[in-house]
Amino acid sequence: MVGKGPDGRDRTEGSDAPVDRNGVEEFCRSQQHKKYCESGQIRALYLHENESLGPAYSKWKRTAQQYKLGSKKAEQELPEITCTTGDGREVNVVVTGGFMLRDYFRQLSPKMTHSSPPALRQWAANLGATAAEKNNFVQLAQSPQIRNRNSNQSGTLSNDLFDYALALMIKAGFLKFQPWIARDVELLLKTFDLPLGEEYTAIHVRRGDKLIEEARPFVTRYYQSRGHTDLNNLPTNYIPFVHYLERWDDGTSANCQSKSSHEGQAASSIIHHVYIATDDPVTVQEEIASLPQVQHVSPNTIRWNDCHELRFYFNPTDGKAFHLNGDGEQGFQPNHQEAAREENCSARYQRNIVSIADMMILTKARVFIGEFNSNWGRFIRTMRVRLDGDAGLTKVLDTRIAWGPTSARAPGF
Questions:
Q1: Which residues pair with 304 in a beta bridge?
Q2: 122 with 30, same domain?
Q3: Could you tell me if 206 and 237 lie in one domain?
Q4: Would you state the pLDDT for residue 265?
Q5: Range in 216-225, 229-238, 315-324, 354-363 with the lowest mean pLDDT
Q6: What is the pLDDT of residue 260?
Q7: Which ranges in 114-178 belong to alpha helices (H)?
Q8: H-helix or E-strand containing 68?
């Protein structure tokens, strides 16, 4: 902090010291600035690297810049760095980001599908595969359908093959968060009312920019299918929550309606825990309160089709702690950029922890209802892939698409 600006806000400047150099020490040694250190005007807080993302990010960025998309070195591998673990082992870590990872997948497909059986078995072994799973992986990679698909779709990694590799990684526990993130997510989950030890359904309701900018045709199509012809005057600019509930019901409630106890008494309620992850919780709660043809037991509990008691749960954090921004429901408006600048890093980190906690709940649900139009929906589907011992391939835990594409895009596209 070097003073205050014309608007009265604190003004800060960053040190130009390279990565792993102590900028504070250099500052205090300089003839121009050491008087401030000697007079006690400089206070330094030193953190371990795993408690401060600054140095880690600098190393990542420096290494990642070695790989350029679209360059003549398109066949080079992603940058790797060697790290030493707490027990003294050295491991290689691939440094990458979203676009680089997509490009990597495009290069990976022909290498995987045209490798020799021993190489494919080693790939599977590196992912923790058993002997039988190694054989399944080889057979899948060398199947004519996958080879032909890769020949016709340049660089596209087969969904089936990618799912199998992914299922192996999930089984082995390779996909995990940094320790401090896992710790903070676990602490947050302990504050949730949702009984995580019981079966539950999870619904992802994406609103805001996703529907306003990208998915408007799906909203239009939804209302057209229900007889609306004035496309400039639709009831809402989003797909209503009741449609997600209809996907949960999926026609199975008819069996419940026919059940009754002896002597003509009504059947007892079947309790369902339903978690709702959304960037628009206020509107969704209003929709629940106004659901027609249901019995409202409490503000977040309804009786559906006479015998299903649906208990809805939301993230317990402040209603303004939305996934994408810190400006509440107005965060999608043009003035959001100014509100975003008002935020501090702590608020952003906490909002990320909230988002990750929601992701974990959606991933582990018995039934997930969402869509593949958003990165969230595609990620949740990815994390719900499991090995299917009976069929020798993979399966996806019960996932129901509320609207939009019914299959996820192939990796890399």
A1: 308
A2: no
A3: yes
A4: 45
A5: 315-324
A6: 45
A7: 117-126, 131-141, 144-152, 159-172
A8: none
Q: 192 with 287, same domain?
A: yes
Containing H/E element for 277?
Answer: strand 270-278
Give the range of the structural domain holding residue 279, as residue numbers without chain letter. Answer: 179-370
Whose structure tokens read 């660089």? 155
How far is residue 204's CA from residue 365's CA, in Å, rounded to a whole number? 11
Using alpha carbons, list the distances in angstroms from residue 395 to 2, 3, 383: 57, 58, 11
Is residue 60's pLDDT more than 50?
Answer: yes
Q: Which two tokens stand for residue 79?
A: 């940058």
CA distances from 174 to 38, 98, 170, 364, 372 (A): 49, 18, 6, 16, 24
The answer to whether residues 106 and 234 belong to one domain is no
Q: pLDDT tens digits for 200-225?
A: 999 999 876 555 666 788 889 999 99
Q: Could you tell me the two tokens for 172?
A: 């082995």
- Residue 13, C-beta contacts closer than 8 angstroms, at least 6 positions apart: 2
Q: Does residue 29 sit in the same domain as residue 120?
A: no
402 located within any domain:
no
CA distances in angstroms from 291 to 31, 296, 407, listed in the order given: 71, 8, 29
Mean pLDDT, rounded, of the chain:
78
